[in-house]
Amino acid sequence: MNKTLVEKIRCMLSNAGLGRKFWAEAVTYAQHLVNHLPSSAIGGKTPLDVWFGKPATDYDSLCIFGSSAYYHVNESKLDSRAKKALFMGFNVGIKGY
Question: What is the mean pLDDT of the chain?
Answer without folding.
Answer: 86
